[in-house]
Structures are given as C-alpha cells and as structure tokens.
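hey so i finally got around to running the thing on that chain from the lab meeting. sorry it took forever, my laptop kept dying and i had to restart like 3 times. anyway pasting the input first so we r on the same page abt which one it is
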Amino acid sequence: MKSKLLIAAMGLALGASAALADPVNRLNVPQDQWMSPAQITEKLSGQGYTVREIESDDGAYEVEMTGKDGVRIETHVHPSTGEIMNGYDD
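ok and heres what got predicted. didnt touch it at all, straight out
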C-alpha cells in the first residue's frame, strides 16, 4: 500500500513540475500577435513614461521605464495589447 501511495505522489509531483517547467509563453499569445518593442515604446511614451529597456520575459514584455514623476519602474506589459500588467510575476 505504501509503495502505491509513493508512486501516486511521485506522479503528481512530476506532473506539477512539468507544468511549471515551461514558462516561456505563460500568456499563450502567439508571436505573430505581439506588438513590436517600438509599438510598446510608443504606447507607453504616449502615457507619459520614458522607456529605458524592453525584453521578452515569460511570454510578456519586461519593461524598465521612468514615470512622469521620475520614479524608475520595472513592470510587465501584455505583448498584444501593450497594457501594463500589475502583479504579473515571473
């Protein structure tokens, strides 16, 4: 009985780790639907931000920018809408 429980527990653990092992595109947005970094910069600039750096990170854009008040911000931006995703954790 113990061996059956151990095997079942190992199977659950392996299944969970497999689901977490590929966070490359967590939002599941196809690459052809992504806005370009230039488009993201333009959109954020229009909202008063000064974009310093953009890179792809776990299926979203990670953006380093400065706000209107001069405060440095590091956040994630949705790749197809350009919306800031507060609370998106990589």
